[in-house]
Design goal:
Pectate Lyase C-like, 147 residues, little secondary structure
Length: 147
């Protein structure tokens, strides 16, 4: 269960130059369309969290757990996502341009129409359930084909 509510988070965001949410449990709450640009979310629990259309540009999301999260159309441009777990996450239409996706787990994730231009995809893990930006499934696609 999340340790902070959407309302508490919105209050914390007022006047914050850079949001610090490292290690915070944000699981299963609705954070859609919020702006987290430049935030430190390192190690946060985002399992089942709704971050649809959120702005996550230049955020440090190293080691987050985002299993079954909804990140459809989120903007991860230039984000640091090293060792993030996006298993079975909805990443439809998300933008990862210039992001660092080193050792990210995309097993079962849906990346239909996502953009990975210029992203670092070294060590990305995926399985037969992963849907790539062009609709290919699992091993029929390769992360390096989309950068």
């Amino acid at each position: 269960m999340a340790e902070i509510t959407r309302k508490e988070l919105l209050l914390a965001m007022i006047g914050a130059a850079r949001l610090r949410l490292a290690g915070v449990d944000l699981s299963a709450i609705d954070l859609r369309r919020l702006d987290f640009e430049g935030a430190n979310m390192r190690g946060a629990n985002l399992n089942g969290t709704m971050l649809r259309e959120a702005i996550l540009r230049s955020t440090n999301m190293t080691g987050i757990s985002a299993v079954r999260g909804n990140f459809a159309f989120a903007d991860f441009n230039s984000a640091i996502l090293v060792r993030a777990d996006f298993s079975v996450a909805d990443l439809t239409g998300a933008r990862f341009d210039g992001a660092n996706l080193t050792d990210v787990n995309l097993s079962g994730a849906n990346l239909t129409n996502a953009s990975l231009r210029g992203a670092n995809v070294t060590g990305v893990r995926f399985d037969a359930g992963t849907t790539w930006p062009d609709g290919k499934k699992g091993p029929a696609g390769n992360p390096a084909s989309y950068i």
